[in-house]
Structures are given as structure tokens and as C-alpha cells.
Amino acid sequence: MAPHGRCCEGDHQHRETPEMGVEYSLYTKIDKNNLECLNEASEGTGKTVFKPWEERLNFEIFVESDADEELLFNIPFTGNVKLKGIIIIGEDADTHPNKVRMFKNRPGMTFDDVNAVPDQEFQLHIDNSGLLEYATKVVTFNSVHHLTLHFPSNFGAETTRIYYIGLRGEYSEAHHHGVTICTYESRPNIADHEKLKDNVTHRVQ
User: Fold this and answer.
1) Could you tell me the CA-to-CA distances from 145 to 34, 73, 139, 166, 192 in Å, in that order?
2) Cα 196 from chain centroid?
3) CA–CA separation, 164 and 162 (whole Å)
């Protein structure tokens, strides 16, 4: 389906370059075994929207919300990410989400936690081709090991449907700091004992 031109001015830009497939490869750095999508109608479908750029227009694979229009993704990475941009592809219909709220490094969020102030949020425009990129605040989304995406609403439908979530940025391996072992002097310092003699009172039984 061709876009119906419902886009307007905002904090996004139109992008389509040959490098997009390389730039949008952070999906390979997601710990999918621990990725969680709350309120998905079919279990496990939330993971499927994080896929290669070349498969972004595969509309046979998608996640749809269940009880209402909300979706919440808890996305752990295998290292640290500097997040620079995000693309959301949905239907050219009212099921397309109209807002995304983003939280940095807050693992295990639930719908009880989403009233917190997000690190950034975007008003989304209907995009069923992946041409709209929303640029994140790189200073804020530096050193991200966990990303939470909350989609609170859509354009009026009872449920929300998403086909693709693309994440653009840089990846670095996590640094694991070992335990620092401190060695203390085991032999007493005689000089210290000489100083203590004056302060010790010997009691005679």
C-alpha cells in the first residue's frame, strides 16, 4: 500500500539510502531471549518486529496488542548502545501507534511504571514504508544497555499493530569489571604497639 500522505512537520526526517540496512542493524545486538513485550495478543510476536531492514515490509509478521491499544517493550542489549534513531512501521490505518515513550536503562518496567517521565517521546505519524526516522537525543541515549518502548495509544482503533521497529546507532561490548582483591598487612607494626602502651590500663585482679 502506498502512504496516504498523512505526514506533517515534526521531529522526524525522511530517509532512504543504500546504507540503511547497515545502519539499522542494532537488532542483532538485542538479547532476544530476554526481550519482553507486554500486552501482545500472541505470545512471542513482540520479538518478531526487530528484524533485518530488508524484511521491514514483510506484513505477514507483526505484533498486535491484546486487551487495549497499549504495548510495552523491554529490550535488553548484549552490550552498550549509543542510540541515534528509531523507525516505526505500522499499518496505513488507525491501528498505527501515534506515540512512543522511551526509557533508558530501566529493566523490568510494567504498565504500573509508565507514568514516569520518559527520557524522550515522539508523536508518531503513520508510516507503512519505513521512510520516517525519529532522531533521538544522543547525549541522553548514550551507553544504553536496556531500552523500554511504551506505545500508549494509536489513531483510534481498539488495538495497535506494529510490523517493524528499527534502531540505529553504535554498539560496544560491555565491560565486565572483576573483583578487586585487597591484600592487608598481616604482621603487626611494633611501632604502633609501642604507641598504644601509654593508653592501656592494666587492671590487677
Assistant:
1) 13, 14, 15, 16, 49
2) 58
3) 6
| Cα–Cα distance measured from residue 11 to residue 125, given in angstroms and rounded to the nearest whole number | 10
Mean pLDDT, range 129-139, rounded to an integer: 95
The answer to whether 110 touches 41, Cβ cutoff 8 Å, is: no
Query: What cell numbers appear for 77 in the block?
Result: 542489549
Q: What distance in Å separates the CA atoms of residue 84 and residue 97, rounded to the nearest whole number?
A: 20
Q: Is the pLDDT of residue 203 over 50?
A: no
Quick one: average pLDDT of 97-105? 98
Q: How far is CA 43 from CA 9, 65, 72, in A?
A: 36, 11, 13
Q: Which residues contact 205 (CB under 8 A, 6 or more apart)?
A: none
- The SS3 assignment for 50 reads coil
Cell of 65: 496488542
Cβ-in-10-Å burial (0-12, 13-18, 19+) of 201 comes to exposed
d(CA 97, CA 71): 9
Single-letter residue type at 16: E
Mean pLDDT of 73-87: 97
Q: What is the pLDDT of residue 22?
A: 82
Rg (the chain; Cα; Å):
26
For the chain, give the mean pLDDT: 85
